[in-house]
């Protein structure tokens, strides 16, 4: 972390959480004199405020800096445990937070699949894609 953190946060709790294991918040961050605050710093501060054992159970996203700077607003999800986070969070957010790995596909495979799908119409497209995946797993 770079020096002392000189920003204040004002979370607004949204009354109806998605699950009992989740706390949803809209977070206002005041950061005068700084362009923005890193997500890692925000996660650490939220972990201290809400006494979360593992900062990996906190997800912050969709932060937008207000015109003129000095203030940002975004969302935060605080889960009871990392297992619950893995259960409910979308895969792309898990990958961004380092809890999952991205499957690397070659450019050629993606193009071949796209071109095969162009020749088929309707529901058969998904079946053709699934068959291609099943054939490569064996």
UniProtKB/TrEMBL annotation:
SUPFAM superfamilies, A to Z: Ribosomal proteins S24e, L23 and L15e (SSF54189)
Record-level Gene Ontology MF annotations: mRNA binding; structural constituent of ribosome
Gene Ontology terms: cellular component: ribonucleoprotein complex; ribosome
Keywords: Ribonucleoprotein, Ribosomal protein
Region feature Disordered, mapped onto this chain: 103-138
Biased composition (Basic residues): 110-126
The protein's name: 40S ribosomal protein S24
Annotated source species: Buddleja alternifolia
């Amino acid at each position: 972390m770079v020096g002392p953190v000189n920003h204040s946060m004002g979370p607004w709790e949204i009354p109806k959480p998605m699950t009992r294991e989740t706390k949803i918040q809209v977070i206002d961050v005041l950061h005068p004199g700084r362009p923005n605050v890193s997500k890692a710093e925000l996660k650490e501060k939220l972990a201290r405020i809400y006494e979360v054992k593992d900062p990996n159970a906190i997800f912050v996203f969709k932060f937008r800096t207000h015109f003129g700077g000095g203030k940002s607003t975004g969302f935060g999800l605080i889960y009871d445990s990392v297992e619950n986070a893995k259960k409910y969070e979308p895969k792309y957010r898990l990958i961004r937070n380092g809890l999952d790995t991205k499957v690397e596909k070659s450019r050629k495979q993606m193009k071949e699949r796209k071109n095969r799908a162009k020749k088929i119409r309707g529901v058969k497209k998904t079946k053709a894609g699934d068959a291609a995946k099943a054939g490569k797993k064996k």
